[in-house]
Structure to design on (512 residues):
């Protein structure tokens, strides 16, 4: 059962018109795209910069530092062949001050792989916990804007407090809190920015977030190189302060999603936001239009009701399961490959820069071709390409190391492009009432791949197939799960589960 609610009705004498979907209604009043919408989309997408920095900051802060022999002529000391744990402590020394990495500052060079990887694992476990606990708050009572503000604030404050860490355990706890807060930033940002524009521009606006993520990724090696030789705490300081300033901008200048406000029954607030960001030539028209209707969901959206609905609706569960499998494979490569760069015979700073730069063409493809690319076919192509190149990295690494880094970049580029398309595809597969929650659950599958990838990276230090070979097999096989999903390019966004089911029935009838 659904309830029709009039919006933007200024004239009581106007003639009753046929109901429009909420997607068509907002596009009619606010316009497909305007400068105000662009400003909002850019401001929201900036959150991805800080998201990227916290996702990959451990590549530098938790790195294994370089060392050198201090006693000349010692035939048992060799930085390339020797194990530092088997040498007398007075026979070697770190190349940089001990506080440049947590490994050297806290004497973890001989610790187990589990201990060394604990901070990174804690971060991703925090992402999993935060995504599970916070995943539906943006769809229920907090909304997109408040959830974005809360997540950014928790992430930035915990990042700043990380500077005060005195041992590995406090550091790991703060990294867990950091990941917990960061968990919903990307989903809130992409949902909020795309819900403010018409369907023609959803792909391009969604790509803005990926551009910002690339910018954040690129900024890390630059900050780390400028501060090389300084304490690892410097990286956390330089990434936390701008994030705190951004939280203030979000609180005062970002608008809530009109779609979400309408579904919450807060019609006056939604109308006020639409008028404030509408194109000048459309804002006057909206004053004269009346009796535009939208379908409001009958069930109450509480904290976990959206998860229950996704579970009970067979078509929704089928879509969610398939896209989660693909997300797991993409996440394993997306988070694992940057972490495994230390296993290659290349400069760490250059390797990270090359990987970050490979996100630029991936973002350009998403930005300029999102309106033309079929979602399902593109995901299949890029996941399979990434898998093939990743497996070939194992073979070529034994013959030609230059070709190996080239194949690694192609594999990572393909995974990044698939990652970008995956988000756009997911937000088009699910209606407004559960969109943020579905996207959050899908991102949890991506993060789960990130949790497992550090274990494979550690194992790959001795056998590369356990890193790049497994990466390639997983993303290639998982990508096949999208074959049974519908194509969504150019499709009007649904706002309720009933509306989406009506479309499914209409489409099935059209084939009879």
């Amino acid at each position: 059962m659904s309830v029709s609610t009039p919006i933007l009705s200024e004239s009581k004498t106007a003639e009753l018109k046929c109901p429009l979907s909420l997607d068509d209604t907002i596009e009619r009043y606010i316009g497909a795209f305007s400068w105000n919408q662009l400003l909002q989309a850019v401001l929201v997408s900036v959150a991805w910069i800080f998201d990227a920095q916290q996702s990959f900051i451990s590549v530098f802060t938790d790195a294994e530092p370089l060392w050198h022999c201090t006693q000349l002529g010692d035939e048992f000391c060799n930085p390339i062949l020797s194990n530092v744990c088997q040498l007398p402590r007075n026979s070697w020394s770190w190349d940089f001050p001990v506080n440049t990495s947590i490994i050297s500052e806290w004497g973890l060079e001989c610790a187990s792989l589990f201990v060394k990887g604990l901070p990174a694992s804690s971060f991703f476990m925090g992402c999993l916990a935060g995504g599970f606990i916070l995943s539906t708050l943006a769809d229920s009572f907090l909304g997109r804007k408040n959830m974005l503000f809360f997540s950014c604030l928790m992430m930035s404050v915990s990042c700043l407090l990380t500077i005060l860490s005195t041992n590995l355990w406090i550091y790991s706890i703060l990294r867990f809190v950091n990941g917990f807060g960061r968990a919903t930033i990307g989903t809130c940002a992409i949902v909020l920015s795309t819900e403010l524009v018409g369907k023609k521009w959803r792909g391009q606006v969604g790509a803005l977030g990926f551009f910002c993520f690339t910018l954040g990724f690129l900024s890390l090696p630059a900050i780390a190189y400028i501060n090389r030789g300084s304490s690892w705490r410097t990286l956390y300081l330089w990434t936390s302060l701008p994030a705190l300033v951004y939280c203030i901008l979000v609180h005062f200048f970002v608008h809530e999603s009109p779609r979400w406000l309408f579904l919450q029954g807060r019609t006056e607030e939604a109308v006020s936001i639409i008028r404030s960001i509408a194109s000048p030539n459309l804002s006057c028209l909206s004053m004269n239009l009346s009796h535009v209707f939208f379908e409001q969901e009958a069930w109450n959206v509480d904290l976990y009701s959206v998860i229950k609905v996704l579970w009970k609706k067979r078509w929704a569960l089928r879509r969610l399961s398939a896209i989660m499998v693909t997300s797991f494979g993409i996440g394993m490569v997306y988070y694992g490959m940057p972490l495994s760069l230390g296993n290659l015979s290349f400069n760490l700073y250059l390797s990270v820069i090359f990987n970050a730069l490979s996100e630029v063409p991936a973002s350009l493809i998403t930005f300029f071709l999102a309106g033309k690319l079929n979602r399902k076919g593109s995901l299949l192509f890029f996941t399979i390409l990434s898998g093939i190149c990743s497996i070939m990295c194992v073979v070529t690494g034994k013959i030609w190391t230059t070709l190996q880094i080239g194949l690694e970049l192609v594999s990572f580029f393909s995974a990044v492009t698939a990652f970008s398309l995956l988000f756009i595809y997911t937000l088009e597969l699910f209606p407004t009432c559960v969109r943020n929650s579905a996207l959050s659950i899908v991102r949890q599958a991506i993060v789960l791949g990130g949790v497992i990838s550090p274990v494979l990276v550690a194992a790959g230090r001795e056998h590369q197939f356990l890193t790049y070979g497994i990466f390639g097999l997983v993303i290639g096989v998982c990508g096949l799960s999208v074959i049974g999903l519908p194509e969504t390019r150019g499709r009007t966004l649904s706002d309720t589960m009933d509306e989406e089911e009506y479309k499914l029935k209409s489409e099935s009838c059209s084939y009879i």
Observations:
- Confidence is low (pLDDT under 50) at residues 1-19, 283-303.
- The domain at 3-63+112-510 is CATH 1.20.1250.20 (Growth Hormone; Chain: A;).
